[in-house]
Amino acid sequence: MRRIRTYYETAATGHDVVRQVTDQLHRLARRLATVRHVLAVASGKGGVGKSAVAANLAAALALRGRRVGALDADLNGPSLARMLGAPHATLRADDDGIEPATGTAGVRLVSMDLLLAGEDAPLRWRQPPAPAGPHGAPLPTAFLWQSMLETGALRELLADVRWGPLDYLVIDAPPGTDRLARLLELVPGLAATLLVTTPSEAARHVVAKSVRLAREAGTRTVALVGNMTAYTCAACGHASPLFHADGVRRLAETAHAPVWAEIPFDPTLSDTTDRGEPAVVAAPSSPAARALAALAARVEAELETHAASARPAHADAGRETHTGAEQEKGAGAAPPPGPYAGPSEETP
Amino acid sequence: MKFLCLGCDELMAFAERQLPGDGTMAAVFACPRCGREIALLTNPMETQLVSSLGIKVGGRAVPEQPLELVRSQLATGRADAFDDAHPPAPIAWSAEARERLERVPAFVRGMVKRIYTDYARERGIPEITPAVMDRARQELGLEGM
Fold it and tell me: Which residues numbered 17-36 in A keep a CB inside 8 Å of some CB on B?
C-alpha cells in the first residue's frame, strides 16, 4: 500500500481551517489585551437573578470610578442592555470594530438585544436550503450548526467590539453549564467566575457542576454569590430566610468556594433594574443594593490583591481612578495588558 | 483541510470559489507542479457548517469584517442596529446596483456596501454595477451576503 503524507507532514497553508481559527482566537486575545480583569457572572441554573447581579455589579464597579465593560453573553435571552438603560442604542461600525453602547454609569455595553428586531424577536439564524431527507421531506439541519454559530457569535461580540482600556469586563454568561463551558474555552484564565445561586437544593446541585467546570477551565478565582438568601421586612428590618434549605452555605463547604455576597430578596432590585436603572444607582440604600455594592468592593479587593501579587511593584505607578465620563471618552493611558495571551502559534 | 496531488506529492493551491446561489459551493484547487485541478463541491448543509465556523474555504480574500458572522447570518436583526461608517472617497453606484443593494437586508446592508466599495476602490473601478457585484461576490467568497 502506498504511503500518503499525513496532514501534519505537509506544510501549513494560508487558507488552512486551523490557521483561520487560530487567527480568530489571536484577534480575540488582542482585543482583550487592554482589559485588566475579565470576570464572568454565571450560574448554570436559570432564574437565579444572574443578569440582575451582573448589571448591578458592572454599575457598582463603575460608580467606584473603574472603567467597566459589560458583555451580555446570553444570546438567546439577552437583558443586560435594558437593565443598564440602553435598550435601543445604535452601534457605530467601521473596519476596526464596533463601538459599544454606553449604559448606566458609563458602562460600555454590548448585547444581542441591541441587534434584534423588536422586543419579541427571538434569536433566529438564516437557514440554508434544506436538502431532501430519506422520504423526500426537507431534512432539518439547524441542530448541526446552530451551537457552532452561536459560539462564533459570542467570539465576535468579544473580539470585534472596541472595548478600549478597561479595568473590568463583566460577562453575563448564559444559563446552562454547556454554554458556560464554551465561554470558558473562548476566554481561558478568567480572573474570576462568580456563580450566582439561591439557597434551594436544586440550584446547589446544578451550580456545583459550574464550580467544577470553572476550576477545570483555569479560572483563577471561583466564588459564590447567594441571591434571594433572606427577606427583609420593610417595616421592622428583620431578615428572615426565604428558603428552608441553606444551599449556598452547603455549596460553599462542599466545593470549598468562598461566598462573596449574600443578597436578600428585595423587590426594589427587580423594580429598578428592570426599568433600566440598576438598584445600586437608583436605590443605593436598599438592602439588595447595599449587598451588591459590597460585592463590587469585594471583587475589587480580591482581584487587585491578586494582580498586585502577580506583577512587579512599579507596574501600578501612575494608575488613577477614572470617572464614567472619562471612560466614555476612552481617556487615560492603556492599562497594563491583561492576561489573555491567546492561542500558541499553530504548527500544521 | 488540505488537498494533496498524489502524482506530484505536492499540496494543491486554492484557485477559485464559486457560489451559484442555491446554498452550494464549489472550491477549485490546483497542483502548482502539474496544473491538475480538482473541485470541492459542498451541499447547502456543508456550506452552512463551514460558514458557521466563520471561516472561508480557500482562505480570506478580504479581512474579516467586525461581527461579520452575526451580521451575515442573523435572520431577526434590527434594521437600524448599526451606523456604518463609510470611506470618504465616493465610488459611484449604478441605478441597478443600488437597487440590488436595497434588496440586501438592512441589518447587513452597511457592511456589504463597505465591502463592495473597498473592492471597487482597490481595483480602480469607478462605478459599481451588478456585474462588479457578481465578480466581487465570487472573488471574495461572500457566502450569504
Answer: 17, 20-21, 24, 27
